[in-house]
Design a protein that fits this description.
By secondary structure, this protein is mainly alpha-helical. It is flat and about 65 Å long. The relative contact order is 0.12. About 0% of the residues have low confidence.
């Protein structure tokens, strides 16, 4: 059922047809982009679950069997993400391997990763944020090094990605936020650290974990509204002034009083 829902939205992006959905746009935009790059023309109706795709090229959006393309590829990335995260936290190779094997043979994870769903995309960014946070913590003895900046910035990018797919990504934002508060509190209590250096630590985290994710999150919506410039099923949720900007709408190019 969800595949018909999000597959249809991927088609909307390919056809540049405006629609409204409760979730942020990133996941659907990536699904549409994957379909577009793999040759899907956005003509499949996605009317009801179980419809055959026939001649439509859907492989780019949904990985089938061994075709790990996009959703399936992102789902498969969860295994090395989990392996590296546990290895970094525990320094135990058996623990990391056990975690990886648990995910490899998890029926739910395998099933979610083979359909056109937001879940594998969301989990990719969630686990990417956790891995980046853990890696950044491991660089705490080398602050402001290239690797420290890389992992801190990648944490911010992953946070924006998680929130941009579903609002449930807020939970990983809270996790990273609590970790950051703990780090800053620990630095504040370090009497050998000057207030100027503490200010630099604070500014770096504000830039990478607040400003960067907010900028990326806003940019997602900018792309969303720039791409969807044709009238569609989402028109009615917006003002007449907005509808007048959509090609094919009854109000297109009509002068609307303030």
């Amino acid at each position: 059922w969800d595949e018909t829902h999000f597959g249809k939205m991927g088609s909307y992006y390919i056809n540049r047809t405006f629609f409204f959905d409760v979730h942020p746009p990133l996941g659907k935009m990536l699904i549409g982009l994957a379909g577009y790059l793999s040759g899907y023309d956005g003509t499949f109706p996605f009317q009801k679950p179980g419809d055959r795709y026939e001649q439509h090229n859907y492989i780019g959006m949904r990985g089938v069997r061994l075709c790990r393309l996009f959703c399936a590829f992102l789902g498969s990335c969860l295994v090395p993400f989990a392996y590296l995260t546990v290895l970094e936290l525990s320094k135990s190779l058996p623990a990391a391997l056990l975690t990886a094997f648990i995910l490899i043979f998890d029926t739910g994870c395998i099933t979610l990763s083979q359909y056109i769903l937001l879940d594998p995309i969301l989990m990719f960014f969630l686990m990417g944020a956790v891995l980046s946070m853990v890696k950044c913590n491991s660089c705490a003895d080398r602050p402001f090094s290239a690797s420290w900046w890389f992992w801190l910035s990648l944490t911010g990018v992953s946070l924006a990605g998680a929130m941009g797919v579903k609002f449930v990504g807020l939970f990983v934002v809270l996790l990273v936020g609590l970790n950051t508060i703990y780090d800053l509190w620990d630095l504040l209590g370090n009497l050998s650290l000057s207030l100027v250096m503490f200010g630099k630590h604070l500014l770096a985290r504000v830039l990478c974990l607040i400003v960067l994710p907010l900028a990326l999150y806003t940019a997602m919506f900018a792309v969303h509204f720039a791409v969807l410039n044709r009238s569609g099923p989402g028109d009615g949720f917006f003002s007449s002034a907005f509808q007048s900007q959509l090609i094919g709408n009854n109000l297109h190019n009509v002068s609307v009083p303030e």
